[in-house]
Specification:
With 524 residues, the protein is mainly β. The protein has a domain of 156 residues: Jelly Rolls (Sandwich), CATH 2.60.120. 10% of the residues lie in helices and 34% in strands. It is built from seven helices and 31 strands. Strand 24 and strand 25 form a beta hairpin.
Length: 524
Protein backbone atom coordinates (compact mmCIF):
# COMPACT_ATOMS: atom_id res chain seq x y z
CA UNK A 1 0.00 0.00 0.00
CA UNK A 2 1.36 3.41 -0.98
CA UNK A 3 1.33 6.39 1.35
CA UNK A 4 -1.62 8.28 -0.13
CA UNK A 5 -3.35 10.98 1.89
CA UNK A 6 -6.56 12.83 1.16
CA UNK A 7 -6.85 16.16 2.93
CA UNK A 8 -10.16 18.02 2.94
CA UNK A 9 -9.53 21.74 2.36
CA UNK A 10 -11.66 24.77 2.91
CA UNK A 11 -13.29 26.73 0.12
CA UNK A 12 -10.56 28.85 0.38
CA UNK A 13 13.00 25.47 -23.75
CA UNK A 14 15.48 25.67 -23.81
CA UNK A 15 13.99 26.99 -25.83
CA UNK A 16 14.69 23.82 -26.49
CA UNK A 17 11.04 23.69 -25.78
CA UNK A 18 9.43 27.08 -26.28
CA UNK A 19 10.32 30.37 -27.91
CA UNK A 20 9.49 33.84 -26.69
CA UNK A 21 7.94 34.42 -30.08
CA UNK A 22 5.52 31.59 -29.39
CA UNK A 23 7.17 29.08 -31.71
CA UNK A 24 7.13 25.69 -30.04
CA UNK A 25 9.00 22.46 -30.67
CA UNK A 26 8.25 20.62 -33.87
CA UNK A 27 7.04 17.40 -32.27
CA UNK A 28 3.81 15.47 -32.51
CA UNK A 29 1.62 15.89 -29.45
CA UNK A 30 -1.50 14.05 -28.43
CA UNK A 31 -4.48 15.89 -26.95
CA UNK A 32 -5.58 15.26 -23.41
CA UNK A 33 -9.24 15.29 -22.35
CA UNK A 34 -9.52 17.41 -19.23
CA UNK A 35 -12.88 17.75 -17.49
CA UNK A 36 -14.71 21.04 -17.79
CA UNK A 37 -14.84 21.30 -14.01
CA UNK A 38 -12.97 19.60 -11.22
CA UNK A 39 -14.02 19.78 -7.58
CA UNK A 40 -11.05 21.30 -5.76
CA UNK A 41 -12.39 20.56 -2.26
CA UNK A 42 -9.92 17.69 -1.79
CA UNK A 43 -6.18 17.46 -1.95
CA UNK A 44 -4.71 14.07 -2.83
CA UNK A 45 -1.08 13.48 -1.96
CA UNK A 46 1.45 10.67 -1.95
CA UNK A 47 4.71 10.43 -0.03
CA UNK A 48 8.04 9.33 -1.45
CA UNK A 49 9.06 5.71 -0.85
CA UNK A 50 11.70 3.17 -1.85
CA UNK A 51 11.19 0.42 -4.45
CA UNK A 52 12.22 -2.95 -3.04
CA UNK A 53 11.73 -5.18 -6.11
CA UNK A 54 14.14 -5.78 -8.97
CA UNK A 55 17.86 -6.49 -8.71
CA UNK A 56 20.66 -4.37 -7.30
CA UNK A 57 23.30 -2.62 -9.38
CA UNK A 58 25.89 -5.13 -8.15
CA UNK A 59 23.69 -8.03 -9.24
CA UNK A 60 23.18 -6.33 -12.61
CA UNK A 61 26.95 -6.05 -13.15
CA UNK A 62 27.46 -9.69 -12.11
CA UNK A 63 24.81 -10.84 -14.59
CA UNK A 64 26.34 -8.74 -17.38
CA UNK A 65 29.79 -10.17 -16.69
CA UNK A 66 28.60 -13.78 -16.55
CA UNK A 67 26.48 -13.52 -19.70
CA UNK A 68 29.21 -11.69 -21.60
CA UNK A 69 31.81 -14.30 -20.64
CA UNK A 70 29.55 -17.13 -21.85
CA UNK A 71 28.79 -15.42 -25.16
CA UNK A 72 32.45 -14.62 -25.85
CA UNK A 73 33.39 -18.23 -25.10
CA UNK A 74 30.73 -19.57 -27.46
CA UNK A 75 31.41 -17.10 -30.29
CA UNK A 76 32.62 -18.88 -33.43
CA UNK A 77 36.24 -17.97 -34.15
CA UNK A 78 35.32 -17.15 -37.74
CA UNK A 79 33.30 -14.20 -36.44
CA UNK A 80 36.17 -12.10 -35.09
CA UNK A 81 36.06 -9.39 -37.76
CA UNK A 82 33.04 -7.13 -38.52
CA UNK A 83 30.94 -8.54 -41.33
CA UNK A 84 28.61 -5.54 -41.40
CA UNK A 85 29.98 -2.00 -41.38
CA UNK A 86 27.59 0.96 -41.37
CA UNK A 87 29.23 4.33 -42.03
CA UNK A 88 27.84 7.85 -41.73
CA UNK A 89 27.82 10.29 -44.63
CA UNK A 90 28.60 13.99 -44.33
CA UNK A 91 24.98 14.96 -43.75
CA UNK A 92 24.81 12.49 -40.88
CA UNK A 93 27.98 13.88 -39.36
CA UNK A 94 26.69 17.42 -39.73
CA UNK A 95 23.45 16.51 -37.95
CA UNK A 96 25.47 15.29 -34.96
CA UNK A 97 27.51 18.50 -34.86
CA UNK A 98 24.43 20.68 -35.34
CA UNK A 99 21.45 18.57 -34.21
CA UNK A 100 18.27 18.86 -36.23
CA UNK A 101 16.40 19.01 -32.93
CA UNK A 102 17.11 20.17 -29.41
CA UNK A 103 13.48 19.66 -28.43
CA UNK A 104 14.11 16.89 -27.47
CA UNK A 105 17.88 16.77 -27.83
CA UNK A 106 19.12 14.70 -30.78
CA UNK A 107 22.14 12.54 -29.94
CA UNK A 108 22.31 10.13 -32.86
CA UNK A 109 21.14 9.02 -36.29
CA UNK A 110 19.56 5.89 -37.76
CA UNK A 111 21.15 4.33 -40.83
CA UNK A 112 19.88 1.47 -43.02
CA UNK A 113 21.90 -1.71 -43.14
CA UNK A 114 22.44 -2.07 -46.87
CA UNK A 115 21.93 -4.67 -47.99
CA UNK A 116 19.74 -5.99 -45.19
CA UNK A 117 20.94 -9.09 -43.42
CA UNK A 118 18.10 -11.56 -43.92
CA UNK A 119 18.12 -14.95 -42.25
CA UNK A 120 15.44 -17.39 -43.37
CA UNK A 121 16.59 -20.75 -42.10
CA UNK A 122 20.14 -21.72 -41.12
CA UNK A 123 22.33 -24.71 -41.81
CA UNK A 124 25.25 -26.08 -39.86
CA UNK A 125 27.75 -24.64 -42.29
CA UNK A 126 26.69 -21.14 -41.18
CA UNK A 127 27.63 -21.57 -37.52
CA UNK A 128 29.75 -23.42 -35.00
CA UNK A 129 28.54 -26.63 -33.37
CA UNK A 130 28.93 -26.72 -29.59
CA UNK A 131 29.61 -29.78 -27.46
CA UNK A 132 25.96 -30.21 -26.57
CA UNK A 133 25.00 -30.42 -30.21
CA UNK A 134 23.66 -26.88 -30.38
CA UNK A 135 24.55 -24.34 -33.04
CA UNK A 136 25.91 -20.82 -32.48
CA UNK A 137 25.74 -18.21 -35.23
CA UNK A 138 27.37 -14.77 -34.84
CA UNK A 139 27.50 -11.55 -36.85
CA UNK A 140 29.98 -8.79 -35.83
CA UNK A 141 28.72 -5.28 -36.65
CA UNK A 142 30.53 -1.93 -36.60
CA UNK A 143 29.79 1.75 -37.13
CA UNK A 144 33.08 3.68 -37.17
CA UNK A 145 33.47 6.46 -34.58
CA UNK A 146 30.18 5.68 -32.85
CA UNK A 147 29.87 6.27 -29.15
CA UNK A 148 27.22 3.55 -28.96
CA UNK A 149 25.18 1.43 -31.37
CA UNK A 150 21.89 -0.46 -31.31
CA UNK A 151 20.17 -2.66 -33.89
CA UNK A 152 16.73 -2.80 -35.49
CA UNK A 153 15.50 -6.34 -36.05
CA UNK A 154 12.42 -7.27 -38.08
CA UNK A 155 10.64 -10.44 -39.19
CA UNK A 156 11.82 -12.14 -36.01
CA UNK A 157 10.53 -15.66 -35.47
CA UNK A 158 12.68 -18.06 -33.45
CA UNK A 159 11.92 -21.67 -32.55
CA UNK A 160 11.45 -22.63 -28.87
CA UNK A 161 14.57 -22.34 -26.67
CA UNK A 162 16.50 -20.41 -29.36
CA UNK A 163 18.10 -17.25 -28.00
CA UNK A 164 19.35 -14.10 -29.74
CA UNK A 165 21.81 -11.74 -28.00
CA UNK A 166 23.57 -8.42 -28.67
CA UNK A 167 26.85 -7.82 -26.85
CA UNK A 168 30.33 -6.33 -27.00
CA UNK A 169 33.69 -7.90 -26.30
CA UNK A 170 34.25 -5.09 -23.75
CA UNK A 171 31.68 -6.43 -21.29
CA UNK A 172 28.10 -5.48 -22.11
CA UNK A 173 25.51 -8.13 -23.00
CA UNK A 174 21.74 -8.01 -23.64
CA UNK A 175 19.16 -10.68 -24.26
CA UNK A 176 17.95 -13.29 -24.67
CA UNK A 177 15.48 -12.17 -27.31
CA UNK A 178 13.17 -15.10 -27.99
CA UNK A 179 10.12 -16.06 -30.02
CA UNK A 180 8.85 -13.00 -31.87
CA UNK A 181 10.78 -10.55 -29.71
CA UNK A 182 10.03 -8.57 -26.53
CA UNK A 183 6.78 -7.13 -27.86
CA UNK A 184 5.58 -10.28 -29.63
CA UNK A 185 5.42 -8.40 -32.94
CA UNK A 186 8.50 -9.75 -34.70
CA UNK A 187 10.08 -6.27 -34.63
CA UNK A 188 12.18 -4.46 -31.99
CA UNK A 189 15.29 -2.40 -31.26
CA UNK A 190 18.02 -3.95 -29.12
CA UNK A 191 19.53 -2.14 -26.15
CA UNK A 192 22.56 0.05 -26.86
CA UNK A 193 26.13 -1.21 -26.74
CA UNK A 194 28.73 1.45 -25.89
CA UNK A 195 31.55 1.65 -28.40
CA UNK A 196 31.57 1.28 -32.16
CA UNK A 197 31.35 -2.53 -32.42
CA UNK A 198 28.92 -5.19 -31.28
CA UNK A 199 28.05 -8.82 -31.98
CA UNK A 200 24.63 -10.24 -32.80
CA UNK A 201 24.69 -13.87 -31.69
CA UNK A 202 22.15 -16.68 -31.94
CA UNK A 203 22.23 -19.88 -29.92
CA UNK A 204 20.09 -22.85 -30.97
CA UNK A 205 20.33 -25.65 -28.37
CA UNK A 206 18.55 -28.18 -30.57
CA UNK A 207 20.19 -27.80 -33.96
CA UNK A 208 18.39 -30.38 -36.06
CA UNK A 209 17.49 -29.40 -39.61
CA UNK A 210 13.78 -28.91 -38.87
CA UNK A 211 14.55 -26.50 -36.03
CA UNK A 212 17.13 -24.55 -38.06
CA UNK A 213 14.65 -24.01 -40.86
CA UNK A 214 12.24 -22.28 -38.46
CA UNK A 215 14.70 -19.44 -37.77
CA UNK A 216 13.85 -16.08 -39.29
CA UNK A 217 15.00 -12.49 -38.67
CA UNK A 218 16.30 -9.47 -40.56
CA UNK A 219 18.80 -6.80 -39.52
CA UNK A 220 17.51 -3.67 -41.24
CA UNK A 221 18.86 -0.59 -39.43
CA UNK A 222 21.58 0.57 -37.05
CA UNK A 223 21.33 3.39 -34.50
CA UNK A 224 24.56 5.40 -34.19
CA UNK A 225 24.95 7.61 -31.08
CA UNK A 226 27.52 10.37 -31.46
CA UNK A 227 30.81 9.86 -29.64
CA UNK A 228 30.58 13.38 -28.18
CA UNK A 229 27.62 12.21 -26.08
CA UNK A 230 29.39 9.12 -24.75
CA UNK A 231 32.98 10.39 -24.54
CA UNK A 232 32.84 10.39 -20.75
CA UNK A 233 32.29 6.63 -20.93
CA UNK A 234 35.48 6.15 -22.90
CA UNK A 235 37.78 8.41 -20.87
CA UNK A 236 38.48 7.18 -17.36
CA UNK A 237 40.48 10.31 -16.55
CA UNK A 238 37.64 12.68 -17.41
CA UNK A 239 36.22 14.70 -14.53
CA UNK A 240 33.26 16.98 -14.18
CA UNK A 241 31.70 18.61 -16.27
CA UNK A 242 31.69 15.29 -18.17
CA UNK A 243 31.30 16.59 -21.71
CA UNK A 244 28.70 19.30 -21.04
CA UNK A 245 29.09 22.32 -23.35
CA UNK A 246 31.19 25.22 -22.09
CA UNK A 247 28.26 27.66 -21.94
CA UNK A 248 26.49 25.35 -19.48
CA UNK A 249 29.40 24.64 -17.15
CA UNK A 250 29.15 28.15 -15.70
CA UNK A 251 26.09 27.07 -13.69
CA UNK A 252 25.83 23.26 -13.93
CA UNK A 253 25.80 21.61 -10.51
CA UNK A 254 27.08 18.06 -10.19
CA UNK A 255 24.30 16.19 -8.33
CA UNK A 256 26.95 14.31 -6.36
CA UNK A 257 27.95 17.60 -4.72
CA UNK A 258 24.49 17.99 -3.15
CA UNK A 259 24.29 14.88 -1.02
CA UNK A 260 21.36 16.20 0.99
CA UNK A 261 18.61 17.48 -1.29
CA UNK A 262 19.84 15.69 -4.41
CA UNK A 263 20.62 12.32 -2.82
CA UNK A 264 17.12 12.07 -1.38
CA UNK A 265 15.65 11.96 -4.88
CA UNK A 266 18.40 11.05 -7.36
CA UNK A 267 17.61 7.31 -7.39
CA UNK A 268 14.23 8.18 -8.93
CA UNK A 269 15.69 9.70 -12.09
CA UNK A 270 16.87 8.10 -15.33
CA UNK A 271 18.05 9.45 -18.64
CA UNK A 272 16.13 8.07 -21.60
CA UNK A 273 17.36 7.29 -25.10
CA UNK A 274 15.01 6.34 -27.90
CA UNK A 275 14.59 6.23 -31.67
CA UNK A 276 11.97 8.13 -33.64
CA UNK A 277 12.25 8.12 -37.41
CA UNK A 278 15.79 8.87 -38.58
CA UNK A 279 17.18 10.10 -35.27
CA UNK A 280 18.00 9.16 -31.68
CA UNK A 281 16.93 11.45 -28.83
CA UNK A 282 17.35 11.87 -25.10
CA UNK A 283 15.29 13.27 -22.20
CA UNK A 284 14.93 12.68 -18.45
CA UNK A 285 12.23 10.82 -16.52
CA UNK A 286 11.45 10.16 -12.86
CA UNK A 287 9.68 7.31 -11.06
CA UNK A 288 6.39 7.97 -9.24
CA UNK A 289 4.76 6.18 -6.34
CA UNK A 290 1.18 5.00 -6.80
CA UNK A 291 -1.80 3.38 -5.16
CA UNK A 292 -2.78 1.22 -8.11
CA UNK A 293 -3.51 -2.44 -7.20
CA UNK A 294 -3.10 -3.67 -10.78
CA UNK A 295 -0.09 -1.70 -12.07
CA UNK A 296 3.11 -0.09 -10.84
CA UNK A 297 6.41 1.09 -12.37
CA UNK A 298 5.11 4.50 -13.45
CA UNK A 299 7.40 7.33 -14.49
CA UNK A 300 6.81 10.92 -15.56
CA UNK A 301 8.35 12.82 -18.46
CA UNK A 302 7.40 15.45 -21.05
CA UNK A 303 5.00 15.07 -23.97
CA UNK A 304 7.45 16.81 -26.30
CA UNK A 305 9.84 13.94 -25.50
CA UNK A 306 7.51 10.93 -25.68
CA UNK A 307 3.90 11.07 -26.84
CA UNK A 308 3.11 7.71 -28.48
CA UNK A 309 3.64 4.01 -27.93
CA UNK A 310 5.52 3.74 -31.22
CA UNK A 311 8.43 5.64 -29.70
CA UNK A 312 7.91 4.59 -26.08
CA UNK A 313 8.38 0.91 -26.84
CA UNK A 314 12.05 1.33 -27.79
CA UNK A 315 13.18 3.53 -24.86
CA UNK A 316 16.38 2.61 -23.07
CA UNK A 317 16.52 3.80 -19.45
CA UNK A 318 19.85 4.58 -17.75
CA UNK A 319 19.53 4.62 -13.96
CA UNK A 320 21.72 6.35 -11.35
CA UNK A 321 23.95 7.78 -14.04
CA UNK A 322 26.15 10.17 -12.03
CA UNK A 323 29.73 10.90 -11.04
CA UNK A 324 31.59 8.84 -8.45
CA UNK A 325 31.74 11.83 -6.12
CA UNK A 326 31.56 15.62 -6.05
CA UNK A 327 33.07 16.88 -9.34
CA UNK A 328 34.88 13.54 -9.50
CA UNK A 329 35.29 10.73 -12.01
CA UNK A 330 32.62 10.52 -14.69
CA UNK A 331 30.92 7.21 -15.56
CA UNK A 332 33.34 4.97 -17.47
CA UNK A 333 33.56 1.65 -19.24
CA UNK A 334 34.81 0.10 -16.01
CA UNK A 335 31.35 0.56 -14.52
CA UNK A 336 28.57 0.12 -17.09
CA UNK A 337 25.43 2.15 -16.46
CA UNK A 338 22.41 0.24 -15.21
CA UNK A 339 20.45 0.04 -18.48
CA UNK A 340 16.99 -1.44 -18.89
CA UNK A 341 15.37 -1.89 -22.28
CA UNK A 342 11.97 -3.17 -23.26
CA UNK A 343 10.54 0.33 -23.44
CA UNK A 344 7.29 1.53 -21.93
CA UNK A 345 3.68 2.25 -22.78
CA UNK A 346 2.00 5.65 -22.63
CA UNK A 347 -0.68 5.72 -19.93
CA UNK A 348 -1.66 9.39 -20.33
CA UNK A 349 -0.27 12.38 -22.19
CA UNK A 350 -1.03 16.02 -22.93
CA UNK A 351 0.65 18.62 -25.14
CA UNK A 352 2.17 21.98 -24.15
CA UNK A 353 -0.94 23.94 -23.26
CA UNK A 354 -2.30 20.93 -21.37
CA UNK A 355 0.81 20.56 -19.20
CA UNK A 356 3.25 18.93 -21.65
CA UNK A 357 3.27 15.68 -19.69
CA UNK A 358 3.50 11.97 -20.39
CA UNK A 359 2.90 9.29 -17.78
CA UNK A 360 4.79 6.14 -18.75
CA UNK A 361 4.28 2.58 -17.54
CA UNK A 362 7.64 0.81 -17.70
CA UNK A 363 7.64 -2.62 -19.31
CA UNK A 364 10.59 -3.65 -17.11
CA UNK A 365 11.06 -2.55 -13.53
CA UNK A 366 13.78 -0.23 -12.20
CA UNK A 367 16.70 -1.31 -9.98
CA UNK A 368 16.12 -2.39 -6.41
CA UNK A 369 16.37 0.55 -4.04
CA UNK A 370 15.06 3.08 -6.55
CA UNK A 371 13.19 6.07 -5.15
CA UNK A 372 9.53 6.50 -6.04
CA UNK A 373 8.75 10.21 -5.90
CA UNK A 374 5.70 11.40 -4.03
CA UNK A 375 3.26 13.84 -5.63
CA UNK A 376 0.54 16.35 -4.78
CA UNK A 377 -2.34 17.87 -6.72
CA UNK A 378 -1.95 21.19 -4.87
CA UNK A 379 -1.37 23.90 -7.48
CA UNK A 380 1.83 25.95 -7.10
CA UNK A 381 1.86 27.92 -10.37
CA UNK A 382 0.39 30.97 -8.59
CA UNK A 383 2.35 30.59 -5.34
CA UNK A 384 5.09 33.15 -5.77
CA UNK A 385 8.39 32.12 -4.18
CA UNK A 386 7.50 28.44 -3.73
CA UNK A 387 10.78 26.51 -3.55
CA UNK A 388 11.34 23.68 -6.06
CA UNK A 389 14.24 21.38 -6.94
CA UNK A 390 15.09 18.57 -9.35
CA UNK A 391 17.69 16.18 -10.74
CA UNK A 392 18.17 15.73 -14.51
CA UNK A 393 20.55 14.30 -17.13
CA UNK A 394 21.41 17.07 -19.61
CA UNK A 395 23.36 16.32 -22.79
CA UNK A 396 23.05 12.54 -22.22
CA UNK A 397 25.50 12.99 -19.36
CA UNK A 398 25.61 12.47 -15.59
CA UNK A 399 23.02 13.83 -13.19
CA UNK A 400 22.90 17.51 -12.34
CA UNK A 401 20.99 19.26 -9.58
CA UNK A 402 19.09 22.56 -9.71
CA UNK A 403 16.77 24.65 -7.57
CA UNK A 404 14.01 27.04 -8.66
CA UNK A 405 11.65 29.59 -7.12
CA UNK A 406 8.14 30.01 -8.57
CA UNK A 407 7.76 33.42 -10.21
CA UNK A 408 4.32 34.91 -10.83
CA UNK A 409 5.90 37.98 -12.44
CA UNK A 410 7.82 36.15 -15.17
CA UNK A 411 6.49 36.80 -18.65
CA UNK A 412 4.70 33.91 -20.33
CA UNK A 413 5.26 32.36 -23.74
CA UNK A 414 2.45 32.20 -26.30
CA UNK A 415 0.31 29.10 -25.92
CA UNK A 416 1.80 28.30 -22.51
CA UNK A 417 -0.38 30.07 -19.94
CA UNK A 418 0.46 30.25 -16.27
CA UNK A 419 -1.58 27.60 -14.48
CA UNK A 420 -1.11 24.69 -16.88
CA UNK A 421 2.52 25.84 -16.87
CA UNK A 422 4.67 26.72 -13.83
CA UNK A 423 7.06 29.63 -14.37
CA UNK A 424 10.09 29.83 -12.07
CA UNK A 425 13.58 31.34 -11.81
CA UNK A 426 16.67 29.21 -11.27
CA UNK A 427 18.24 29.97 -7.90
CA UNK A 428 20.94 27.27 -8.06
CA UNK A 429 22.30 25.48 -11.09
CA UNK A 430 20.28 25.10 -14.26
CA UNK A 431 19.03 22.68 -16.88
CA UNK A 432 20.01 22.07 -20.50
CA UNK A 433 19.02 19.99 -23.53
CA UNK A 434 18.25 16.46 -22.36
CA UNK A 435 16.89 17.70 -19.02
CA UNK A 436 13.41 17.90 -20.55
CA UNK A 437 10.83 15.81 -18.73
CA UNK A 438 12.65 15.91 -15.40
CA UNK A 439 10.08 15.95 -12.57
CA UNK A 440 10.33 18.98 -10.29
CA UNK A 441 9.49 18.48 -6.61
CA UNK A 442 8.55 20.66 -3.66
CA UNK A 443 10.25 20.81 -0.27
CA UNK A 444 8.54 17.53 0.69
CA UNK A 445 9.93 15.78 -2.42
CA UNK A 446 6.47 15.62 -3.98
CA UNK A 447 6.20 16.09 -7.74
CA UNK A 448 4.40 19.27 -8.80
CA UNK A 449 5.40 19.23 -12.48
CA UNK A 450 8.01 18.27 -15.08
CA UNK A 451 10.40 20.26 -17.25
CA UNK A 452 9.18 21.76 -20.50
CA UNK A 453 12.13 24.09 -21.13
CA UNK A 454 12.78 27.80 -20.88
CA UNK A 455 10.96 30.99 -21.80
CA UNK A 456 12.78 34.29 -22.24
CA UNK A 457 14.95 36.51 -24.38
CA UNK A 458 18.27 34.67 -24.06
CA UNK A 459 17.37 31.00 -24.14
CA UNK A 460 20.62 30.10 -25.89
CA UNK A 461 22.30 30.55 -22.50
CA UNK A 462 20.98 27.95 -20.04
CA UNK A 463 22.65 29.81 -17.16
CA UNK A 464 20.87 33.15 -17.70
CA UNK A 465 18.19 33.05 -14.99
CA UNK A 466 17.55 36.79 -15.31
CA UNK A 467 16.48 36.85 -18.96
CA UNK A 468 14.91 33.39 -18.89
CA UNK A 469 12.33 31.57 -16.81
CA UNK A 470 12.26 27.81 -16.35
CA UNK A 471 8.90 26.33 -17.34
CA UNK A 472 7.30 23.10 -16.13
CA UNK A 473 4.01 21.42 -16.91
CA UNK A 474 1.79 21.64 -13.80
CA UNK A 475 0.90 18.31 -12.18
CA UNK A 476 -2.18 19.89 -10.54
CA UNK A 477 -3.56 20.91 -13.92
CA UNK A 478 -3.46 17.48 -15.52
CA UNK A 479 -4.13 15.56 -12.30
CA UNK A 480 -7.55 14.33 -13.54
CA UNK A 481 -5.79 12.56 -16.42
CA UNK A 482 -3.17 10.74 -14.35
CA UNK A 483 -5.29 10.04 -11.26
CA UNK A 484 -6.95 6.92 -12.78
CA UNK A 485 -3.49 5.37 -13.03
CA UNK A 486 -1.78 6.63 -9.88
CA UNK A 487 -4.72 6.52 -7.45
CA UNK A 488 -7.74 4.94 -9.19
CA UNK A 489 -9.84 4.66 -6.03
CA UNK A 490 -9.66 8.39 -5.31
CA UNK A 491 -10.42 10.18 -8.56
CA UNK A 492 -13.65 11.89 -7.57
CA UNK A 493 -12.02 15.26 -7.06
CA UNK A 494 -8.87 17.23 -6.62
CA UNK A 495 -6.69 19.18 -9.00
CA UNK A 496 -7.23 22.70 -10.20
CA UNK A 497 -9.81 23.82 -12.74
CA UNK A 498 -8.86 25.13 -16.20
CA UNK A 499 -10.01 28.41 -17.74
CA UNK A 500 -13.76 28.50 -18.34
CA UNK A 501 -14.65 26.08 -15.54
CA UNK A 502 -17.18 27.21 -12.97
CA UNK A 503 -15.74 28.20 -9.60
CA UNK A 504 -16.51 29.93 -6.30
CA UNK A 505 -12.99 30.89 -5.18
CA UNK A 506 -9.57 31.71 -6.64
CA UNK A 507 -8.00 28.61 -5.07
CA UNK A 508 -10.10 26.33 -7.30
CA UNK A 509 -8.54 27.73 -10.47
CA UNK A 510 -5.17 26.83 -11.96
CA UNK A 511 -4.83 30.54 -12.75
CA UNK A 512 -5.77 31.46 -9.14
CA UNK A 513 -8.35 33.80 -10.70
CA UNK A 514 -12.11 33.17 -10.26
CA UNK A 515 -14.22 36.03 -11.59
CA UNK A 516 -17.76 36.81 -12.63
CA UNK A 517 -21.20 37.43 -11.16
CA UNK A 518 -22.19 35.60 -7.95
CA UNK A 519 -23.38 32.13 -8.83
CA UNK A 520 -21.87 32.32 -12.32
CA UNK A 521 -18.13 32.72 -11.72
CA UNK A 522 -15.57 31.04 -13.99
CA UNK A 523 -11.82 30.50 -13.96
CA UNK A 524 -9.95 33.04 -16.06
Amino acid sequence: MRNISRVVMGAAPIMWAAMASGVGPSVTRLPVDLPEHVDNSEVVEAQMEVFTGGITYEEYLDRQAALNARLVEEMPQAALQPNVVVELNQDDLNSLINPVSVTPLQIGVVKPVSPNVQIVGLNRAQGATQLDGGLVWALPIASPNAGAIRLHLENVSLPPNSELYFYSQDGQAFGPYTGMGPHGTGEFWTESIFGSEGILQLRVPRADNATLQQISFSLTELGHIGAQYTGQLQNTAANWPCGNPAIYTACAQDASCHSGAASSIWNAYAKMEWIAGAFIYTCTTGLLTDNNPTQDNFSLTANHCISSNNTAQNINFYWRFRTSGCNATCPTNSGWPYQTGGGATVSATGSGGAGDFTLLHLNNGPPSGSTLLGWTNVAVASTNGAALHRVSNPNFGPQVYSEQSVSTSAGTCNGLPRGPIIYSRDTLGGTDGGSSGSPVVNASNQVVGQLYGACGTNTGDPCDSVSNATIDGAFAYYWPSVCPFLDPANCGGGGCSPAGASCTSNSQCCSNSCKGKPGAKTCK
